[in-house]
Give the backbone structure.
Amino acid sequence: MDVTWGPLTPDDAPAWAEFAAAVAAADRSGDQVSVDLMTERLANPLLDLERGTLAARVGREIVAVGLAPVRHAAEPVHLMDLWGGGVHPAHRRRGHGRRIIDWVLATAPELHARKHPGKPLHLQLHVPDDNHGLAVLAERTGFVPTRVFQDRRRDLTVPVPPPRPSGGVTIVPWAPELDDQAREVRNAAFRDHWGYTPHTAESWNRSITGTGVFRPAGSFLAVAGGHAVGCLLTHHRPAPTGAPEAWIQVVATVAEWRGRGVAGALVSHALTAFRAQGYATAGLSVDADNGTGAVSVYERAGFATFRTRTSYVHVRQ
């Protein structure tokens, strides 16, 4: 059958979820896939469905997807993180990926100019290190490998060392009234990280604590002197085995409290909670060049790398 191209629509959540599940299985990505999640993404106010999405269809089946969502902030640059799923494994090597990349390169500057006029624009594409075809395509179209991210996993059937909060710090459960403090800690802690974009209350709610995969019971704050100095926020996702996995989405410690065991205490506390809640594994992603000591914290907690991804960046303006 012929391939037709056009934007996604709000009714595409089931077809997109089916497509994304096939891609995740083929690429062993472990990506979260559900109709509810795709419905959330299609409703994202930062995603212009008409201008910022492109899908290839064979009949009613989606076989390729490209998305170009804008970010809520551009400080200091507008780093557009491209996602969508790529190309269905049964339809690869037919030029669909190149068409999506060419479309992104032409469309992203227009979307950027409407949201953040005058700001620098960088496009970012995350490429699993075993997806050689996508890496070649990225480099051929002007993307440059910039950072390496490690996806790590911890087997929760292995005993977890008891939490040892640092002096003067108390670990407390996340609660709605503490959400602003958690966001402020994350913004302060990540200000010196590569690719940093500060979260507004709206963007934080939409992508971290307001999404359907957020797990309040697995999320915690480290408090000292009545103020949060660290936070750990958890999402829920399926593991490759099909068992649910606790995915640590955010771990942050404000600069003046780094090196005092705050992050380690938060991670240990969370792992203990995950075991009690019946999770078999916990996972997270970390910048391999993170300068705050995060990699060593996760290694001590028993997290081992199971996949690496390279961030490719295209500087547009």
